[in-house]
Each structure stands twice: as structure tokens, then as C-alpha cells.
């Protein structure tokens, strides 16, 4: 997907430095700047291996990098998983457009790009989470047909971080 202002395309290994920078910006935006964030090397290792842990689309800003490096306005990170109820599922793990580039259709184009990949891979559902205080994102997702299953279907999201996972596994 492309417009005169940006190009939506699959991430490449050379994008990892810019994606890591944007992830750090997102962590600051969410008040999580003090937490460890991913590195360029880790992104490259996890996304561009034989069996990648995730895939990503990026929003490239053509002609903005004087030194030849690509400048990105945002990204959408996703992976495939499985549900015994609906079978193939796409999980939108992370989705962010820098505030200075919002309102130009980049977010909608990224999300449509991920949705298209889901349809092409015969996914029956796309899921994601959103911080409860992020009213702008909630409005954006609802505008594009997203359902808040926390309210509508009474689901709770649980997790174990590394320490809890290790303790539970008995390791």
C-alpha cells in the first residue's frame, strides 16, 4: 500500500534500528520508559529467522533520510496463533504511529495491511489488546470494526512474566 506521503510494506532486517527507536518512543508514551525494551539485534534475530516469532509491516516515509537510512513513521507487529474455537488467528501484538504522523491515514493503512495478510492466510479472527486509558486508540479500533471483548464477552487477560513463568515451571 502506498500514498504520496508513505509506503506500507513488510519490515526488512535493515528496519530494525528504526523499529527499536519507535518501540522506545512507544514505551515512553505508555509510561513504561523505565522497563527494558527490545534492541535492534533482538528484533532482527526474532523476526528474520527460519521460524520467526513475529512479522511486521512498517510505514516508510520516502525521501526523508539524508544518510540513506529509511525513516519510519510507525509499525504493526503481528504473529499467527490458533484457537480451538475458530482455528486460525492473527494476533496484532504491537501497533504504533508516531504522534507527529497521525491523521494522515498511516494507522488505518497499517491495520488494513495486517488484516489483508490475515485474510490471505485464512485467519478467522484478529485479536489485540489496548490500554484502558487510551481512549484515542479505543475509538480508532471501534471505528474500524473492532469489538471490545472485555466488555462484550467478559474475558480477562492473564499473563506470567519471566519470573513467574520460571517459578511455575520449577526451573
Oligomer: single chain
Span between termini: 46 Å
CATH homologous superfamily annotation: Gcn5-related N-acetyltransferase (GNAT)
CATH architecture: 3-Layer(aba) Sandwich
Describe the structure concisely for a colleague.
It comes from Branchiostoma belcheri. This is Diamine acetyltransferase 1-like. The protein is an alpha+beta fold.
Report on this model:
34% of the residues lie in helices and 22% in strands. It is an alpha+beta fold and 171 residues long. The protein has one domain: Gcn5-related N-acetyltransferase (GNAT) (Aminopeptidase, 3-Layer(aba) Sandwich). It has a 5-stranded mixed β-sheet, sandwiched between helices. A hairpin with a 3-residue loop joins β3 and β4. This is Diamine acetyltransferase 1-like. InterPro entries: Acyl_CoA_acyltransferase (IPR016181), Diverse_Substrate_AcTransf (IPR051016), GNAT_dom (IPR000182). Belongs to the acetyltransferase family. One of its GO terms (molecular function) is N-acetyltransferase activity. It comes from Branchiostoma belcheri (Amphioxus).
Keywords:
5 strands, 171 residues, alpha+beta, Aminopeptidase
Amino acid at each position: 500500500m502506498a500514498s504520496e506521503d508513505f509506503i506500507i510494506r513488510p519490515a526488512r532486517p535493515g528496519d530494525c534500528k528504526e523499529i527499536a527507536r519507535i518501540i522506545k518512543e512507544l514505551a515512553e508514551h505508555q509510561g513504561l520508559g523505565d522497563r527494558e525494551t527490545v534492541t535492534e539485534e533482538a528484533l532482527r534475530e526474532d523476526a528474520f529467522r527460519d521460524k520467526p516469532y513475529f512479522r511486521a509491516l512498517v510505514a516508510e516515509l520516502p525521501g526523508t533520510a539524508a544518510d540513506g537510512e529509511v525513516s519510519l513513521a510507525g509499525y504493526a507487529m503481528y504473529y499467527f496463533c490458533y484457537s480451538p474455537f475458530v482455528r486460525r488467528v492473527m494476533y496484532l501484538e504491537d501497533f504504533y504511529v508516531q504522534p507527529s504522523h497521525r491523521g494522515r491515514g498511516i494507522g488505518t493503512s497499517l491495520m488494513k495491511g495486517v488484516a489483508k495478510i490475515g485474510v490471505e492466510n485464512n485467519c478467522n479472527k484478529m485479536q489485540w489488546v489496548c490500554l484502558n486509558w487510551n481512549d484515542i486508540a479505543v475509538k480508532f479500533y471501534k471505528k474500524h470494526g473492532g469489538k471490545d471483548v472485555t466488555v462484550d464477552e467478559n474475558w480477562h487477560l492473564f499473563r506470567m512474566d519471566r519470573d513467574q513463568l520460571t517459578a511455575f515451571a520449577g526451573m
